[in-house]
Amino acid sequence: MEAKEKILHSAQELFIQYGIRSVTMDDVARSASMSKKTLYQYFDNKDGLVSEVAMKHFEQETEEFTQIEDVANDAINEILLVSQCLRKHVFRMNPSLLYDMQKYHGKAWDNYLQFKHSTIRGHIQRNIERGQREGYFRNEIDAKVLSIFRVEGVQMVFNPKVFSREEFEFAAVQLQILDHFIHGLLTEKGKIKYDEYMKTESSNHTL
Fold first, then answer.
1. Domain limits at 155?
2. Which of 20, 25, 146, 169 has the smallest count of CB within 10 Å of its CB?
C-alpha cells in the first residue's frame, strides 16, 4: 500500500471509530506507522485530510450503490443489499462523526451534503420506483418524499439531542428505523416476497 493510501485508510478507520475531533494528526501518523513529518508531506493540515478521506469514502459508497442496483434481483433484494452496506459503513460509525464534520470541516460537510442529496437520495428514489413497477411497493407512495424521509431519518440518529448516547444504542436505533421504513413500503405481494428473503437469510445464518 502506498504511503498516501495508507494515511487515508488509517485516518478513515480512526474517524469511524472515534469521531473526527478527537483524532489528531499524531494519532494518524502513529496508526499509519510513519512520522508526522512524512504525513505532512502529503497533507498540509487535518482539514485537508478529512476532506480527502470523506471524498474517497463517498466514491466507494457510490460505486457500491451502483453495483447493488446492477446485481439485485428485485427492489426488495436491492433494499436488503443496501441495508447490508449500511451495516458495514453507517452502523459502525462513531455517532459524533457527522456532527464533528458539520461543525469543524465545512468543505467535507458540503461534499457530504452533495453525496446525500444526489447519490443516496437518488438511489432510494429509484429503488422505490422500481418496487412500485414490480408490485412490491405501494403505488400511493411518493418516491421523492419517502427518499428524503429515509435519508434524513438515517442522519437524525447521529444527533445526540434526539437519541442520547446514554439511553440509545446507535446501531439498534438504525435497525429499528430501517425495519419501520421497509414495512411501510410493502404491498401484500411485497410482504410475501420480503418474508421469503428473511427466511432464506435466517437459514443461511443457522448453517
1. 45-206
2. 169
